[in-house]
Amino acid sequence: MSVDFKKLTSFVKIVDAGSMSRAANALRIAQPALSQHITALEAHFKQTLLLRSNQGIVPTEAGLTLYRHAQVMLKQLDQAQRDITNATLSLQGRVSVGLATFSGATALAAPLLLGLAEKHPNVVLNVSDSFGHILSELVVSGRLDMALIYSFGPIKGVSLQPLFNEEVQLVAPAGLALPGSADQPIAVELLANMRLLLPGRYHFLRQLIESSFAHARVAPKVGSEIESLATLTAALEAGLGATLVPSSTAKLFSSSKKLVIRRVRRPSISATISLCQSDHLPMSEAALVVRELILRLVTEFAEREGWSQATPQGSRAIKRAPRSP
User: Fold this and answer.
1) Would you list the DSSP string of 201-220?
2) Cα(257)–Cα(270) distance, integer angstroms
3) On the chain, which terminus has fewer CB atoms closer than 10 Å, C or N?
4) pLDDT category, 151, cuts 50, 70, 90?
5) Is the pTM of this model over 0.70?
6) 146 half-sphere exposure, CB direction, 13 A CA radius
């Protein structure tokens, strides 16, 4: 029996709902018909796709693989329907963009929304910083059309276009004893015993920081994992520790009398922000328009904010500074 979009839709809805009855109600079809769809899929793939228990329905490993592929195919079908419907109308559609947290990319959100509203008011833009998710994985799965992410190496399933670099700086409570004068950079090795407030281990910024500490042959002392700018601000001002963030985020703390900002050296840390898009999923016309707008805004912001331009091959995540004599 052939596989069709109706059966795939049924399968995805069952996995999402975790229940045959809830999925049947959501799709407004009889439960026996829904069961037949799953039976047909399992016969076609010659695999058990779902496990049934008193606690609900969960996918097997084979089911998870089909679920990921089905999500991509159904999204493409939905986009094809939109593109065909809107082919003779003004530009319309939905575009989803992810922005790397704690980076200069988040400053693009408002001008991106404004620019799109002025030129293409019928395009619905979803902007997400998606705490708790890896943005590149959302691009691979098709849940995001593109993202501006931290990058310091190839990522399977996506293409990366390096855009700009940001210097990572130390933000610390004003009462914390720091080595050297206020205008002197601090060597990474001197931060080894400092209580740091950093994002979770999955976050590229955290990985970049840990890599930099490893180059200095020390390890960061992580006191708390914080992924909210408001919470981070409160924790810093309460004296609970220091943090390392890109310069655009560090600048947000510059008006606080309770905090100080210091540059970091040996090694200096540079976060590369790249445009991430799928290397196998096509972009809609609306997504291509948003992509061009992002690239134009990045150029404007780089000139105004002093961001250094990343090379097409990508820049080194860690730059060694010469040792003082």
Assistant:
1) TTSHHHHHHHHHHHHTT---
2) 26
3) C
4) confident
5) no
6) 26
